[in-house]
Amino acid sequence: MLGLQKNVEKLHKLRISPWRKVSMATWKIVDDSSVHGLLKVNADKVLEYLAQTNEKSDQKVTLTHVMIKLLGKVIHRYPHANSFIRFGNLYQREEADIFVHIAADDHGNELTGTVIKRANELSILEIAAELSHTASDYKSGNKSEFDQIKTLLKFLPTFLLRPVLLFIGFFLYSLNLWTPLLGVKKDPFAGIMFTNVGSLGVDLAYTPLATYSRVSFLMAMGRVQDCFKEVDGKIIKSNELYLTTTFDHRIIDGVHAAKMCNYIRELMDNPSLLDD
Q1: What is the spatial distance between Cα 46 and Cα 267, in angstroms, rounded to a whole number?
Q2: How far is residue 3 CA from its own chain's centroid?
Q3: How far apart are CA 112 and CA 43, in angstroms?
Q4: Cα 142 from chain centroid?
């Protein structure tokens, strides 16, 4: 038996405006409706928060864990962004799940990822523990969430990969069906994605949305950089970093994106809000 189930268990159909319909009709697929944005944010308060958190706990907390929690709160406040399109209609997920890229080996030759469920409801320490455990499992040779599908795709010729991946995306999201025969977990990429390119020494990167993933919002974080500026005649040093965003314009307008980015700035400037 196929063991068919719903791919995303909890969905509710949203009412859409005439403009949203025009937007959906204008762009056929995600890879030609992407909008890129750039945020330069001060990281002093967050780094201070990290240092204080790590002093109180044996669990190592990094900027990646902070950003997963931050994105969970952002999507919880602005759930419209956590949606995908099915046959010309917009369907919104109920849970703020975040997909995060992680290294599957210590050399950076193999990347994979995992989904942090209900990131807004977890503490940063819980997120750190879960991600650390998952990364250790992958690096020790235990199977990752995508091993089964990767094994299948490895034997397919390149010209067949795109239609196969598009079919999987159609099956999971347009039909909202899931079967273990696909070789992936339910909603394998969630609706929101995060990647830390700063861990690779990169200042900033504009990252693409994969058509088959149906991700509506992707954030990439660059490395922390020293910044010097003059304040009242004195040279002040601060820590700053770039956050780049890519979003599906059929789902998220500039107004939505601006509100989300303003909330990101607020949380970066007031990291204690992440504990609420």
Answers
A1: 9
A2: 28
A3: 27
A4: 23
pLDDT of residue 137: 79
**Per-residue pLDDT at 19:** 58
Separation between Cα atoms, residue 182 and residue 175, nearest integer Å: 14
Are 60 and 124 contacting, i.e. CB atoms less than 8 angstroms apart? Answer: no
Residues sharing a CB contact under 8 Å with residue 246, sequence separation 6 or more, in sequence order: 34, 35, 36, 37, 206, 207, 208, 209, 217, 218, 220
110, 189, 104: which is closest to 144 by C-alpha?
A: 104
* Cα angle 142-192-130, degrees, rounded to a multiple of 5: 35
Range picked from 18-22, 53-57, 207-211 for highest mean pLDDT: 53-57
93 Cβ partners below 8 Å, 6+ apart? 8, 10, 11, 79, 82, 83, 84, 187, 190, 191
Orientation angle between helical segments 147-154 and 158-169, nearest 10 degrees: 140
- Residue 62 to residue 78: CA distance in whole angstroms: 25
Top pLDDT among 88 and 25 is at 88
Q: Per-residue DSSP letters for 5-71?
A: EESSS-EEEPP--HHHHHHHHH-SSGGGSEEEEEEEEE-HHHHHHHHHHHHH-SS---HHHHHHHHH
- CA neighbor of 91 nearest in space, from 24, 184, 27, 181: 24
What mean pLDDT do residues 57-70 have? 95
Rounded to the nearest angstrom, the gap between the alpha carbon of residue 207 and the centroid of all alpha carbons in its chain is 11
